[in-house]
Amino acid sequence: MTSSAGKAASGKAAILTYHRVVPGNRRERMNDVTTDAFRAQMEAVESLRQESSGERHTLADGLQIVISFDDGDESHWMAASILEERGLKGLFFVILDRLGRDGYLTVEQIRSLAGRGHAIGSHSRTHRRFDRLSPEEAAEECIVSKRELEEFAGGPVDWFAFPGGYHDAGSVRAALDAGYRSVRTMRWGYAPGGMTGLLPALPVTGFHTPARFQRILEGRAAVWPYHLKSLGKKILPEALYSGLRDRIGAGGA
């Protein structure tokens, strides 16, 4: 890695955000990443890793990496095994009320992941948009999911991720008041090394080439497309925005 890349990465953290990890070429959504691509990406992380502490991995240039997964999809069970083959641990954001449903992780799997050293985070109780909730509803989503997930994990649940990234000032307060130390949004960017408070993320999609993923690890991910994405998210109907996003593969990281 070049000295300029090392300077760009120093003192920063990349919270990589995955959704489904799918076998073969069965990608159905923009956010789907194939198992082959995921393995190659984790090999790239492993090749640069200097040390690890739980779900936090420090690369040779000082960049910290957190490998996170949203929604508690059943494919994350396989993804955890791929991580473990390389001595890596992940952060699994799960939706409390979907545990045990068809296509999702079970409570027993959450217990196993936590017992094997992976971190469990809350992706809310019901996966509703937080910018449309009352203060009481937002608090309930945060508090109940934290309490139940801590019971399943057998330890503290310090991470929270807003469903869809939607949040407002009141929902941020609800998450922090519930006791979460790290609250991940879907604003694209590098987080400060301490990774506490309100944090940006770097989504990884099926459109990430090896070179594009390498730029993330060098601290050089392009985040300017986030502003275009945010504008579209604000002005377009939700269904139209989602369809356009999936067709054009907006990623930016």
Structure keywords:
single chain; 9 helices; disordered C terminus; alpha/beta
How would you explain this protein's 3D organization?
With 253 residues, the chain is α/β, with parallel strands linked by helices. Helix content is 39%, strand content 22%. The strands form two sheets. Strands 1, 4, 5, 6, 7, 8, 9, 10, 11 and 12 form a ten-stranded mixed beta sheet that branches. Strands 2-3 form a two-stranded parallel ribbon. α2 (35-48) packs parallel to α7 and α5 (135-153) packs parallel to α6.
Q: Portion of residues in helices?
A: 25-40%
Spatial separation of the terminal alpha carbons: 19 Å
Q: What fraction of residues sit in β-strands?
A: 15-25%
Instruction: Please give the radius of gyration in angstroms.
Output: 17 Å
**Class of secondary structure makeup:** alpha/beta
Secondary-structure element order, as H and E? HEEEHEEEHEHEHEHEEEHHH
Total helical elements: 9
Indicate the low-confidence ranges by residue numbers. 248-253
Shape: globular
Number of strands: 12
What is the average per-residue confidence, as pLDDT, rounded to a whole number? Answer: 89
The main β sheet shows up as:
10 strands, mixed
